[in-house]
Design goal:
Bound molecules: ligand FNR
Number of strands: 12
Order of helices and strands: HEEEEHEHHEHEHHEHEHHEHEHHEH
Distance between the termini: 53 Å
Largest sheet: 8 strands, parallel
Radius of gyration: 19 Å
Strand order of the largest sheet: 4-11-10-9-8-7-6-5
Number of helices: 14
């Protein structure tokens, strides 16, 4: 097995080993104020959402994870089966592996073969050329392209594996947005975003952004535990939580579509993220955990349960549609409160 295939398998193994080990998402620092008159019925709830030109039945999706080895091909097939049965959109992991090593292309193509009619996003790093973007989209017959920005992860990866130059990301993303021919979603990988980052992306024409914050899968912890000397434990708490990142994005939510991911596991996490202005929620680590521990059928049943729980929660909150959730009264406690004060956010 090549170093590259081994790395993909290690990511999956370590994500599962470290699953749930991150103590805080900041969603626990958010409380809804209960009001006694919902003034609506459960049957009034409409869970549909819209982003990156897609109309989706549910406000959550399977976010970018894997591909590039035999083991990850199987995981992609399981995830694609869940997506097919539930109608969820699904992203692949970085297709860069297949561009460098065409022999692993099948571990990505399996997603489209399993789910011919589904909404599928291909995924690549921000440094890639438009030509590579088109190849990634072709391989999956993808409906959109996710571009990930992951500087902390690259820097913790050993010399020879991790990227060391970061000067062309914005210009490459701009070219991709202008030329790749499908909608582009720029995403973090669990370190969150600041309002400055969001403004930089808006200036180069990005229309859809997944803030992917701290609180779930932690790629500094994952890469650090792949090293013999674990030099980077100081950085394991790096970045903004998903809740804080969404608050940072608030001033721009009428100009750019914001998606939430990072540490989202339950319908209550989803409702909190949607209340902070996200159009939809991406789940990675939790879906990986579910398909590996419960299998495909029970994961599908779990998604159906989430649909019902979301309807219940939205009724309780008097929200007929996703956008109504933003009208909720929410109490924000520490550490979110202190962040807002320090950044002068009302
Ligand atoms: C990821 N993630 C990821 N993101 C990306 O854009 N490209 C990728 O190739 C990968 N690879 C990957 C592998 C594995 C095993 C996991 C669990 C995750 C990051 C992912 O999309 C997401 O941003 C973070 O994992 C945070 O969300 P969760 O896992 O806390 O829901």
């Amino acid at each position: 097995m090549s170093i590259h295939q081994n790395r993909k398998d290690e990511h999956v193994e370590l994500a599962e080993k470290l699953y749930g080990s991150h103590p805080l998402t900041d969603f626990e620092a958010m409380t809804f104020v209960h009001h006694s008159f919902p003034n609506m019925n459960v049957s009034d709830v409409d869970l549909r959402t819209h982003f990156a030109t897609f109309d989706l039945e549910l406000p959550f999706y399977i976010n970018g994870m894997t591909g590039g080895s035999d083991k990850t091909a199987t995981i992609n097939r399981y995830l694609a089966l869940v997506a097919k049965e539930t109608g969820l959109a699904m992203a692949s992991g970085s297709v860069s592996a297949a561009i460098k090593h065409p022999e692993v292309a099948e571990s990505f193509a399996v997603i489209r073969r399993t789910n011919p009619k589904g909404v599928i996003f291909a995924n690549l790093g921000a440094e890639h050329s438009v030509e590579n973007g088109k190849r990634a989209v072709d391989l999956l017959q993808a409906d959109a392209l996710q571009l990930h920005v992951n500087a902390p992860q690259e820097l913790v990866m050993p010399d020879g594996e991790g990227e060391r130059s970061f000067t062309n990301w914005l210009s490459q993303i701009q070219k991709m947005v202008e030329q790749v021919g499908v909608p582009v979603i720029v995403k973090e990988v669990g370190f969150g975003m600041s309002r400055e980052t969001i403004q930089q992306l808006m200036r180069i024409g990005v229309k859809t952004i997944d803030v992917s914050g701290r609180g779930g899968t932690n790629f500094v912890a994952i890469e650090n535990s792949r090293r013999t000397k674990q030099e980077f434990s100081f950085a394991e708490n790096w970045g903004q939580s998903t809740a804080v990142s969404l608050i940072e994005s608030a001033p721009f939510q009428n100009q750019v579509e914001i998606l939430a991911s990072g540490g989202i596991k339950t319908p209550i996490d989803m409702v909190k993220a949607l209340s902070l202005g996200a159009r939809a929620c991406g789940l990675s680590g939790h879906f990986l955990h579910l398909v590996q521990t419960l299998g495909v059928e029970k994961t599908i049943a779990e998604v159906e349960q989430w649909r019902q729980t979301l309807q219940t929660l939205m009724t309780l909150l008097g929200a007929k549609k996703i956008a109504d959730l933003q009208k909720n009264d929410i109490i924000l406690r520490e550490p979110i409160k202190g962040w807002c004060e320090a950044r002068r956010i009302d």
